[in-house]
């Protein structure tokens, strides 16, 4: 698709199941677990097959209303395919480093599709520090409601995915029972339980989540017309 004309830009958040290939084959998804999961989710929204929608009338109505055509289709950002991977040339490495600081904006500003499934023996999606970061960033940007509902339902069975959000809501409301320090401490405590290939990334992720949390608080204050809440945030 052409990102300049796309009607929808979707960011995919996922575990790397293999360091070199990212995605892996499974008996149920011989073309790749992530690829198969993305296909199922996108079919459900843009062109459901009989497997996703048994009703022919509903499939037909869906096709008429949402059919993707030409440059007005949906473009999916999948980091393994969208960014130069190792080994990188000098130019590719420069492009990679230019893109990296802006990655969080994708999950915060555009609908995020969480691919939470992992293979046997691989730690879970929210156990990964960077996946946790992407999830929290998308949640703070309110970008999980369209393509990640099933993922949230599944992840909620494994852990409390809303713990940070609950604390942030209390902080945003301006109540005395929760401060910015309380929220940051909660984030830090959760990050200490996450997996990082590079342990020094923990502090970077803490800064990223804290920055997007502050933006969320400020935006809520502006939209709610609360000058007191806005002054407290800044």
Folded structure, characterized:
- The protein is mainly α.
- It has helices spanning 33-46, 56-66, 79-82, 90-99, 103-109, 129-140, 149-156, 163-172, 180-191, 201-224, 227-233; strands at residues 8-14, 74-77, 112-115.
- It folds into two domains: 1-157, no CATH class; 162-234, no CATH class.
- It contains eleven helices and three strands, in the order E-H-H-E-H-H-H-E-H-H-H-H-H-H.
- The protein has a three-stranded parallel beta sheet with strand order 2-1-3, with helices on both faces.
- The protein starts with 7 loop residues before the first strand and ends with a helix.
- The mean pLDDT is 89.
Topology:
Elements: E1 8-14, H1 33-46, H2 56-66, E2 74-77, H3 79-82, H4 90-99, H5 103-109, E3 112-115, H6 129-140, H7 149-156, H8 163-172, H9 180-191, H10 201-224, H11 227-233
Parallel strand pairs: 1-2, 1-3
Helix pairs in contact: 5-6, 6-10, 8-9, 8-10, 9-10, 10-11
**Average pLDDT score:** 89
Question: Residue share in helices?
Answer: 40-55%
Radius of gyration: 19 Å
Global morphology: globular
Order of adjacent strands in the largest pleated sheet:
2-1-3
Order of helices and strands: EHHEHHHEHHHHHH
- Count of separate structural domains: 2
Largest sheet: 3 strands, parallel
């Amino acid at each position: 698709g052409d990102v300049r004309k796309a009607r929808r830009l979707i960011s995919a958040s996922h575990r790397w199941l293999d360091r070199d290939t990212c995605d892996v084959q499974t008996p149920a998804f011989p073309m790749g677990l992530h690829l198969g999961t993305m296909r199922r989710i996108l079919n459900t929204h843009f062109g459901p097959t009989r497997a996703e929608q048994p009703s022919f009338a509903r499939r037909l109505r869906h096709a008429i209303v949402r059919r993707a055509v030409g440059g007005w289709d949906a473009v999916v950002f999948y980091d393994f395919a969208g960014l130069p991977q190792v080994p990188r040339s000098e130019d590719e490495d420069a492009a990679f480093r230019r893109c990296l600081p802006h990655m969080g904006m994708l999950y915060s500003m555009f609908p995020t599709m969480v691919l939470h499934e992992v293979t046997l023996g691989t730690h879970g999606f929210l156990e990964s520090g960077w996946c946790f970061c992407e999830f929290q960033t998308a949640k703070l940007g309110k970008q999980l409601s369209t393509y990640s509902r099933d993922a949230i339902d599944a992840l909620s069975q494994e852990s409390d995915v809303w713990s940070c959000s609950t604390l942030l809501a209390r902080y945003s409301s301006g109540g005395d029972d929760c401060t910015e320090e309380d929220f940051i401490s909660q984030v830090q405590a959760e990050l200490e339980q996450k997996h990082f290939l590079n342990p020094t990334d923990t502090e970077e992720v803490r800064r990223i989540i804290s920055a997007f949390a502050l933006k969320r608080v400020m935006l809520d204050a502006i939209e709610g017309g609360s000058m007191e809440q806005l002054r407290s945030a800044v």
